[in-house]
Each structure stands twice: as structure tokens, then as C-alpha cells.
Amino acid sequence: xxxxLIRFMRIINLVQSxxxxxxxxxxxxxxxxxxxxxxxxxxxxxxxxxISNMGxxxxxxxxxxxxxxxxxxTEQEALxxxxxxxxLEPVSSLIPAGFDSAYEKVMGTHNREKKQRxxxxxxxxxxxxxxxxxxxxxxxSFLFDIIQAALSGQTIHTVYYSxxxxxxTERLIDxxxxxxxxxxxxxxxxxxxxxxxRTFRISRFKQVEVLDRTFDKGDFNLKQYMxxxxxxxxxxxxxxFKVLFRGDAVRYVKEEEMFLKPRMTQRKDGSLLFEVTVxxxxxxxxxxxxxxxxAEIIEPKHYRDVMRERLERWKRVYET
Length: 320
Known about the structure:
The chain is an alpha+beta fold. Helix content is 39%, strand content 24%. It folds into three domains: 97 residues, Arc Repressor Mutant, subunit A (Orthogonal Bundle); 83 residues, SH3 type barrels, CATH 2.30.30; 81 residues, Alpha-Beta Plaits (2-Layer Sandwich), CATH 3.30.70.
């Protein structure tokens, strides 16, 4: 079994370095028979290593873009492989010469790749400058830890401040995606406390610890999850807005980078009819407010009343 493991690694390296290598040469280089090589190739195929016979006389090659370099191990795979020497210790006298050096080369490659990935993530995290809530002193950014956890599929243990409840809670979160919205970063992932997908603002994390436990996104679809969400706040409604933009607002609206795809119709008088469906109203209404009288809600009519009441409240504030 131990000889077969070493032979598997040898076959993979040979096929990768010499695409088109024949079974006869594989047998010679591995110091075994062609019959054994055929059995090994069948076993590798069962392990989802995509080595394929390219045709008579054309030898064996990897199909698709499969490669053993980089190793691209998960933390769980790396841990399992690192335990191999201790598991083989009872039969160390039966292990052929060369195993130790081969093992060290593989682990060395993994450690080098891990450091390179860490350096890249740290560099990205350093470039991204996050703001600090006005009520807090400038503190530690957990962006690096969260990016690292999301890339390696690891759960994080956090202390999170909830603005809605004005309270801090401990949570285990599987960080699926990082999403930038309105000069902020949010984590979308599975919250073990709520047993559901939740959205967390990074600046509200008070502590973050990356755990050894891993997670799987399953069939989670970010686009479906964020469907009809104007920015980050999600709802359960389906509200079709029609807004008429006039004046300079038309040019600015056309240049807006939006997360939804609105329908925009240019009119002969220079105005712009803007139509979009959202699942929550607050963020869209706040966005419209910046354009003042140059943005008029046409439908739903109920929101004309909502906007009118908002303007009357503002007026009363400044009248007093």
C-alpha cells in the first residue's frame, strides 16, 4: 500500500511533466510492470484524477486544466497529509527509500504556496482602506482574517455589535462572500446562531478568530439571494418604482453604477423615465432624495405621499 502511494505520486508527476508519456515508459520509470501501471491508472481515475489515454500511441495526459502545481490544498487536506508520517511510523522499515524526501518536497511546496497566498491577501487587505464608525476610536481591521477565512472555507468566531438591538453577541459565521456597498464592506454568510444566511457589516465586528472547522456553501446563489435588492438591505416585497428624472440629474443617473438593472427611457423633452423593481423601499428612497425636485416618483402613487410627508417634516424643522 505504501509503495502504491509513492507510485501514484510518481505517475502524477510524470504525466504532468511529460504529457503523452506511454504506459511502457511509466512502468520503466516506476520500476514496475505495465499491468501494474494500468491498475494504478484505473485507481487514480476512481480518485477523480483526470488522467486520460489520448489514443493509440499518444500516451497519457491530464484532461481539462488539472494540475498538481499549485497544490491548492484545503486546510483539512493539508492537515490530513501532515499526519501521514506518524501514521506510517509503525511500518517505517517497509517504506522505500525516497519517501521522506518526497514528502518534504510536497509539504515544502504547500507551505510556500500558503505563505504566498497569505502575503497576497495581506497586501489586498492593506490596500483596502475601511472607515471607522464615528462613535468608535480607530481600531483593528479584521478584513484580512475574514478574506482568509472566506478563501479557505473556514468558520469564524466573532463578537458582533448589532445596531438594531444595540447589543453585542458571540456568533459562529461561515463567510461566503464579501460585498462592497456604499463605501462599506459586508460579509454574507451562514450564521450558526440564527441558523440562516445573514449579512454583517465588517466595521461592527469587535473580535474575529478563524477556526479550524471548515464549511461548504452548498447550492447558495449570491445573485438569487440579492435579487431586487437596491443596495444591501433586503425585504420580502416586490415594489415597481417609476421615477421621472429631469435636468442635470439625468446625466448623473445614467452614470450611476447600480447593483440592479433598471429600465431607462429617454424622453424627447430631455427627461428620463427610470423603472426598477426592489424588495425594500428605504435605500431607494434615500438615493432619490439626493436629487431633490429633479427626481419625481410617478408610481406607486402611495410613495408620492410618503415623499411629500418627508418633505413636510423637513420644512417644519427649518421653519422652527
